[in-house]
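<context>
A single protein, sequence plus fold
<entry> Chain with its tokenised backbone below
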Amino acid sequence: MISRENLLIAMTGVSIFTMGLLAMIAHFLAAPSKGKGLLWFGLFASPYGLVLILRSAVPSIQGSQPETLLLIFGRSVGLLAALPALLLFQEWCGNQWHLSSRLLIAIYALAVISVSAVMTLHERPLSTPSPGTVLVILFAIVLAFDHIAAGYQPPPIPHRGVIFGGLLVFFISFSYDRIAHWRSGNETATTEPFGFMVLATCFGIAIARQVAADQAERTAMALEMTAARTIQTRILPAAVPSPAGLSIAVRYAPMTAVAGDFYGFLETGFETFGIVLADVMGHGVPAALVASMVKVSVISSVDRNVGPPMVLKDLNTMLYREAPGEYATAVYISIDRETSSGKYSSAGHPPPLLWHRGTQLLEKLDGEGLLLGVRKVGDYVENNFAFQRGDRLLVYSDGLTEAENDACVSFGDLQLPELITTEQRLSTEDFATMLLKEVRTWSQKDGDSFQSDDITFVVIDFV
């Protein structure tokens, strides 16, 4: 018959084991977080709770073989459970403590090996000191040494009062059991399980609060990203224009929620039409903010009725002055439908491709120009081209041409020129849809879609 004491220990063990198991499940089911506190806590608590459950199920017959084997098993499990506890403290105490924690783990491992050897050879294996005692002492010594000798200041620990309150209760119960049973050689803990229960509860409260705070932070960030996406969508053209003599299609596929690519269309005269496409270095919100600045600068320059070189020059000056350290490529094209000609300037941007249907030739509009934001003053060259009815112009960011397949071959090396040639009879919309599908298929990894950069391109047919 299970005694009242063993029943209490069993109930405590079930509670601790359940808390640890739920913590591990929560770690693997939750969204990615900053740390592994739930995992380390689960690996720390569950084995301890399991040992308590097994111990309470064995008749407490002093010196019996089942009890001895179970206590040895319990001590072995306790040795392993101490390692996740150290990893949990390492995560809480910050990067500056990593070296000391590794040293502490090494010393503890030597203590475990030594105690295990003594337990194997000693006629009274349970009379050997517990490595857990060594660990508690070493932990206090190492932290004190780091604080006094090395000037280590641990980072603020969330809910510090709850954690250290639980540690104090556990330390008192742990010390009481070790002192009370030192001489008898019987290491059956009577007070420690309840102290551990208090510690586990305090840890659980602290970790649960931290996880809740992390989740709230992630939710806030998700809302901010949604807002950023909405704002960025507003800086892009609301609709694709349909100027006389031109058929235009656009595809915009950001790698993340927001992108550093920007494109725009500008009616610069009765028969002239402007196209700008810029690619800010980097991804995410910072690149998107710079992209919004690009729009403001381009519109301001075009309102002054300046040519492509001055548009890029103004853009370079703005970027260098207002966003130092941020860089971008860009191309600005001005199309004159009356003369069937165009002029453009480039700032380190991939060259637009002009397909001449009449001669079946592909021309690269490869203008020279320095990357935007590198120098305070940038000079850009105006280049010219001519087109005929039926020709097709493709303006794009490097996310299109630099997409690689499993063999590390870029999409722009062979696939893009071939598609422009073989699919020349497709309409602008159909060609744009096909092109985006092909580049995504090209860059699949292990059968899954993979995109390493923002993809933006504009297809213009001269009709």
